[in-house]
Amino acid sequence: MIARGLLLCFCLILLTLTAPAQSRRRAQLTTPQNNGPVPVVSAPQIRLLESMVFNSSLLNRQVKYSVYLPPDYYISNRRYPVVYLLHGLGDNETGWVQFGEADRIADEGIKSGELPAMIMIMPNAGITWYVNDFENKVRYEDMFVQELVPHIDSMFRTRTQREYRAISGLSMGGFGSLTLAMHHPELFSSCAALSAAVRTDEAIASMPDERYNTVFAPIFSGPVKGQERLTLTWKRNSPLVLARSAPANDLTQVRWYIDCGDDDALTVGNAMLHIALLDRKIPHEYRARDGAHTWSYWRTGLPDALKFIGTGFHR
Q: How do the pLDDT tens digits run along the chain, 315 residues long?
């Protein structure tokens, strides 16, 4: 009897203790909980900045450019080498990403270890050929060197020494990359030109008027014919002329990579550029792969061009 009484008392005590706990549990299940801060998950940082703008005093207008940042840019405080990637005729600052998949190619190369982490800058040049025009009214080259490069170095964590700055491009951008590197070996350590729009003097002089007056005349000469097209502006900016006449000491400061498809109409000019560099014993790499003047050629060529550039960023 005593044991039964003690057991009954214990059960009553247990019921007394658990009832409030059960009530509290029911209240928690039916009442909105506001007992702590709502966790905040930060948005991923954007690594592809398209159509950024800066104000150019030399051009008296805004200049657009796109930026690729490497995967670890926002989680480090290091500085990065930079590649200026130039578009072709009729394109703009978005072409290398939209059609060339440059951001994907760089991401894959960096993650696999085939490429060093790098920043890529893709400026819009319109149809300037990346040079100062013959009237010195549209001074794109001056803007590039005096304004764009310093602007990029001030806005992003770049390594500012020339050994960590390179330039590349396709077609008109290949022409621009060669010309800018030949004019400014103090700025660029490597140049990788894909299907560069390199033409001989003879090709320029004999070009049909409609083509010449639309594409070249506004920059190099105005609407003239034949030998009159071979102006000082043309000769000053022709990669073929520069390869034959620029000081050898300037040319040897830059690592050169030339790649043009064997079915490309520009393959003759690129082959002659290769020969001109050979004649002067200027070290360079030359490729003539199977292909034409197409985005598929440039997409497949960009990985090796960036590897060539990236090798120069190492010590």
A: 454 554 444 444 444 444 444 444 444 433 444 444 545 445 567 899 999 999 999 999 999 999 999 999 999 999 999 999 999 999 999 999 999 999 999 999 999 999 999 999 999 999 999 999 999 999 999 999 999 999 999 999 999 999 999 999 999 999 999 999 999 999 999 999 999 999 999 999 999 999 999 999 999 999 999 999 999 999 999 999 999 999 999 999 999 999 999 999 999 999 999 999 999 999 999 999 999 999 999 999 999 999 999 999 987
Coil, strand or helix: which one is 51?
A: strand
DSSP percent split of the chain into helix, strand, coil, nearest 5: 45, 15, 35
Q: What is the dihedral sign for C-alpha 152, 84, 146, 189?
A: positive
Please name which of 149, 154, 158 lies closest in space to residue 119, comparing C-alpha atoms.
Answer: 158
Q: Quote the pTM value.
A: 0.86
